[in-house]
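Handout, section B. The chain below has 90 residues.
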Amino acid sequence: MITAMNAVPPSLTPSRQRAARANHELLHKGLLLVFMGLAVLVGPRFMAPSGMRDVVASSAAVGWFSAVLGVGFIVRYGQRRRAGTRRPKP
């Protein structure tokens, strides 16, 4: 017997649920990478002069890599989202 609890609308099939979850994970990963990259790039400006500040400042290439990779993930999320919302032309 099918009840309202286990009836799945056609737009929420398991494959679409997995795709939506993967898209949201891509957005989360992208945002985290951008924030971590910015923290590495901007952090040394707010740290007191110490050895740790020098270590973080010397890893600017890692910060740029993280920021650019995060932006790439966010762009890919936008492309996937836009492709999923297109309607076929009548």
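Note. The chain is about 75% helix and 0% strand. Compare this with the example in section A.
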